[in-house]
Amino acid sequence: MSRYIKNNYVQFWLGCIIVIGILHFLFTGLEDKVTSFSPLLFPMLTIFLLVFHLFIACFMVMKYWCDRQRLYLLAFAFAYVGSAMLMVGTLSSYPAWLDLHQFNVVNYNDAMIFFTFRHLLMAVMFIASALLYFIRNRPLTRTFHICVIVGAAIYTAVIVILAWLYSSFSPLLSLDLVDNETRQYMLLWKEAISVALLLVWIVSLATLMIITRVRNMFWVGGNFICVCYIVTLAMLFLGGHAEDITWYRARLFETVATLLIIFVLLYDVFNLYRNSHLKYQQSYQNSIRDPLTRLYNRSYFYDALNQSLRTVSETHPVSVIVSDLDRFKRINDNYGHLQGDKVLQFVSQLLMDSVRPQDIAARIGGEEFVLMLTHTSSDAARQVAERIRVKLSSFDRANSDGQLPEPVTISMGVFTAISPETSAEACVECADKAMYEAKETGRNRVVVFQ
């Protein structure tokens, strides 16, 4: 049952049922409170849809511009651009939203004509987008891209021109879908065109679901659009005439559903940004850290030390501790370099656990490490180094989970800067001299530079 529920198709349909159910509940409550809607509601919703569709079209173009392999996005873009153009024709059928004196002059037949061609354009372009997505991983030539763009533009232009020719704006062609006097749907709409549009959208939904497999939020949105338009057409099919309650319910549903699609697309953008940001952070961390020990590397350490030295003073000193493992070459020779890497990783973890979050632990050589302790005096830095030395010398093979093949000791040199004139190189050089003094005086000890 758990595996069945995690299926993409099952989750998608459950989500659709929940969203459509919530919208139906909200619309039913609205209809109970509002007995009749203003004629201006339709053009107002159309204006919202026009803006939403232009937003989605721009979104698709920008995504394609960022990744030219996503040619299928342009099919979506042309679908929404053409839809917005046809909605301008729909608005021209409602002069009331512009002219107060023509409040009751509405051409419902023109509105339905533009609505019909808009759905025909979008459904076909959705199918084209799914087919282009299917071949996205194939090497597509520049010529193919141009042909697809030109073909989509021509098809969009043809649909828009045909809608204009069939409307009352042109005497060349005619199409009767709604009786403007009685506002009743004509048989051509009820028995042919509405059914044909439903079938086209069902084919579009099936094509998208089979090809995309609803694999991410972007295609969840694409498939949900198809479901929304199927529900919208079903509402109009069940309605009796224009301006009845189903007429407005269908438009309200389409507007709210389109707004939800925009939220889905924005969520997709958020995911892309988050993934990109995580990859950037990972890449940045890899550039400033040692790949073996995950301590900071030499360049990052010197950058951080130079920055800290700008504000150094006697009351805010900066201490540098240079350390080197004693007789580390013997471990590599006796136990192998793999065991030697484990020793380096163990010591690195010990160093990171022994300093504060604002301090810097870095690896600047093979078995040579350096610590930068901000706002730390010479005595405090010596105590930190001594604590690290004692703790490391207390480990052996048994209590280190095999990471140390034998007890390991470390020699450490401490230098504290109290003047901003001191350079980072001078700090490390002085601490390095103190560390070599510790080596020469018997190893496994801490020496403070004098």
From TrEMBL:
The keyword NADP does not apply. CDD domains: GGDEF (cd01949). It holds the Pfam family GGDEF. Its cofactor is Mg(2+). Pathway: Purine metabolism; 3',5'-cyclic di-GMP biosynthesis. It is an enzyme of class 2 (transferase). Residues 316-450 form the GGDEF domain. Keywords: GTP-binding, Membrane, Nucleotide-binding, Transmembrane, Transmembrane helix. It catalyses: 2 GTP = 3',3'-c-di-GMP + 2 diphosphate. InterPro entries: Diguanylate_Cyclase (IPR050469), GGDEF_dom (IPR000160), MASE4 (IPR033424), Nucleotide_cyclase (IPR029787), Rev_trsase/Diguanyl_cyclase (IPR043128). The chain crosses the membrane at residues 12-30, 42-62, 71-91, 111-134, 146-167, 187-211, 218-240, 252-273. Gene3D superfamilies: 3.30.70.270. Its EC number is 2.7.7.65. NCBIfam families: GGDEF. This is diguanylate cyclase. It comes from Leclercia tamurae.
